[in-house]
């Protein structure tokens, strides 16, 4: 078993209590008291939903539970990174200290530790940076690991999310913070400096596909965390992988390409 093996998730959802909400620019870090959950493997997720006002109104569909990566674990506490991108996520962003939250998890296949003494490069875009925070914690707990963090955002408001991780190099589309350009330009420089690396990535589909292709060309192993709603994704050699069963973390070498529906919001 992997040194990051996680215990099986409870079979029923749990009613948790919000103990704090922190603002990072355009994002919210939702902190919930979560004493009984098994320790998650980095990259696993939970299905979460507000305990109250869970519907969109009498003539509207309910806000179904949504999949969110577990961004961080502290003693007796789980954290999730949220962005208001629609009615359902807006309801979650409205939660405040003392509110209830339904949660089911940890679920899914998480990241595996680096092999053959490779250094880890964490590559995240937008709200997809969430599973890289708990991954950084796990890697840095192994004191001998060298960890590089590369994060990309659309603008300065979203770039404030970089504070979720430590020591990140940042790229922004509009040049308002850090490198003006693509996140993969930073990755190319890192791999040129030392290609003996293992890449871990989560973010929008175009970014993930660029990371996959770059790592394949340079023979660098990579693990990609795909979006839960990615559903079936093309498998190299034919057929499909199911993100809900085989993921969300999938070895990049198993993928024919990263489909547009399989990435996190930017």
Structural summary, described in words:
It is globular and about 55 Å long. The strands form 3 sheets. Strands 4-3-7-1-2-6-5 form a 7-stranded antiparallel β-sheet. The chain has a 7-stranded mixed β-sheet with strand order 11-10-9-8-12-13-16, with helices on both faces. It has a two-stranded antiparallel sheet with strand order 14-15. The protein has helices spanning 87-93, 130-140, 156-159, 183-193, 205-217, 243-246, and strands spanning 14-24, 27-33, 45-50, 66-69, 72-74, 77-83, 100-107, 119-125, 147-153, 169-172, 179-180, 197-202, 222-225, 232-234, 240-242, 249-251. The chain has 2 domains: 14-107, Elongation Factor Tu (Ef-tu), domain 3, CATH 2.40.30; 119-262, 3-Layer(aba) Sandwich (Rossmann fold), CATH 3.40.50.80. With 266 residues, the chain is an alpha/beta fold. The model has no long low-confidence stretch (mean pLDDT 90).
Task: Compile the SSE list and pairings.
Elements: E1 14-24, E2 27-33, E3 45-50, E4 66-69, E5 72-74, E6 77-83, H1 87-93, E7 100-107, E8 119-125, H2 130-140, E9 147-153, H3 156-159, E10 169-172, E11 179-180, H4 183-193, E12 197-202, H5 205-217, E13 222-225, E14 232-234, E15 240-242, H6 243-246, E16 249-251
Helix pairs in contact: 4-5
